[in-house]
Structure formats: C-alpha cells, structure tokens
Amino acid sequence: MEKTHYIGLLVLATTLVACHGPRKTANTSSRAETAAQQEQTLHIGDNSEVSLDWAGTYRGLLPCADCPGIRTVLTLRTDRTYLLQRRYLERGEDAFTYEGSFTWDPTGSYIILSEESGGGKFLVGENRLFQLDGDGQRITGELADLFILTKMDHQVRDIYWQLVEINGQSLEGIKLNREPYLRLNTEDRRAEANGGCNGMGGSYELDEEHHRLKFSQLISTKMACENMEIEQQLADVLQLTDSYAVSDDTLQLFRARMAPLAKFRAIYVKD
C-alpha cells in the first residue's frame, strides 16, 4: 500500500514538472524575443538608411593613380538600384556606365555596390557619400577629403543630356553620325544641341520654379547625314517646347504638359 502511494506521488510530481516546465521556458523565450525586437527597433531608428534622405545623385572627382582624377557620379534609387558613371580625365571622352543593385551593411551605415561596377563601399552621410576601403573603413590621411561625393539638386543647366527618345520613339539601335544631346549653358545662357549630324544653337528662357522652358533663335549647320529625320524632329521639338520635368536622371520636354516630346538621360561625367 505504501509502495503504491509512493509511486502515485512520483507520477503526480513528474506531471506537475512537465506542465510547469515548458510554461517557464516559453515565458523566458518570449521575454528574450521582446528584448531583441526592442533592441532592433532602437537600432533601426538611428542609422543612415532610415534617418537620412539618401536617394539622389552624388558627384565628385575621385583620386586616380595615373591620371588627374576620376569624374564620378553615383545615383542611388529608392528601390536599391544604382547608376554609376565614371570618366578618367585626360584619357579621352569615353564615359563608363554601370547599373546594378546595392545593399546596406548590417548597421545601416554604408552601402555596398553589386559587382557590375567592380563593387565598392560608401558611408552614407548628410548629403554626402564617403568612399570606404575594401574593409569598409574610412580612408584617412592627406587625401581623405578627396574621397567624397556630394549630393546634387535637380538641376537642368550645365548638364550633358543625351537624347534617348523623341516623339515616343526610342533611339536605341538607330545609327547616327554623332550622339544627339542637349545642353543649357549658364555662363552665356545659350543652348547647344545635336540631332545626330549638325550642331544647333540658340537662346533659352528657363523658369526653374514653374518648370518653364523656351528656346528661340535656333540655328544649325547644314551637313548631310544618315537619319536626318531624327535631327529634324529634334529641331521641331525645341521650337515647340514650353515646359520640362526632371526626375532622377531623366529630362523630359513638353508642350502644354501633354505627352513628352523628347526624353534625355543625364551623362554627368561629360565636360
């Protein structure tokens, strides 16, 4: 009888431990998860990725071992893709363009470019990017201030705008004698352009506050080339334009805010 009573107590004690044991473990796990979540929330709220308006275009002249410098422009988009443009000074007019995606480091302090451009790491600051070394560390020494890219405003003037679409037609694959482009020069307030053959020039009136733009007194050279229709279309577009829009690295020209007459892509590394 005593032996049976002892076995019953042992079973009861084991049952109580089994019931209460997991409950205690679950509470401990829940508290640990809550603490981790709180710590992560505090951390996320105090880094460059969350706190800064980092999307935009950054420009600078980075050091070069065997040339006067590398004109560099890096555009970061909110979808975590980038456009990188580089031109090595005194090595011709060729610009190297790369597109890819980027990730943030675990602390949300710097970005890491994908391998399309050979990789690269940049610490993200207030309106500035600081190029880092291969280990993700700030570059120090006398040249440290040269490894900085500065954020640009959405400007129209003094930028080489490459024509990529006109009257809804893409220029991809169309053979032209010269690259078609548009540039609005601040110094003499003159517009210069090319439709693939002849150079064009004239005056312009720009109202950046209301996004108004007009061209006048346009003249051009008279050479004969292939695909002259593109050049004629561009000349007509410039005559019709009365407004514009800039988004990311794209300039669009409009007439009465209807469908875009022409689209251009910014090539920041051109002189």
Quick overview of this protein structure:
By secondary structure, this protein is an alpha+beta fold. The protein has helices at residues 2-44, 48-51, 228-240, and strands spanning 56-62, 70-76, 81-88, 96-104, 110-113, 121-125, 128-131, 148-151, 160-166, 169-170, 181-184, 190-194, 199-207, 212-220, 243-247, 250-254, 262-267. Strands 9, 10, 11, 12, 13, 14, 15, 16 and 17 form a 9-stranded antiparallel sheet that branches. The chain has an 8-stranded antiparallel beta barrel with strand order 1-2-3-4-5-6-7-8.
Structural commentary:
With 271 residues, the chain is an alpha+beta fold. The protein has two domains: 51-151, Lipocalin; 160-267, Lipocalin, CATH 2.40.128.270. The chain has helices at residues 2-44, 48-51, 228-240; strands at 56-62, 70-76, 81-88, 96-104, 110-113, 121-125, 128-131, 148-151, 160-166, 169-170, 181-184, 190-194, 199-207, 212-220, 243-247, 250-254, 262-267. Strands 9, 10, 11, 12, 13, 14, 15, 16 and 17 form a nine-stranded antiparallel beta sheet that branches. Strand 2 (70-76) and strand 3 form a beta hairpin. The protein starts with a helix and ends with a strand. Residues 1-43 have low confidence and may be disordered.
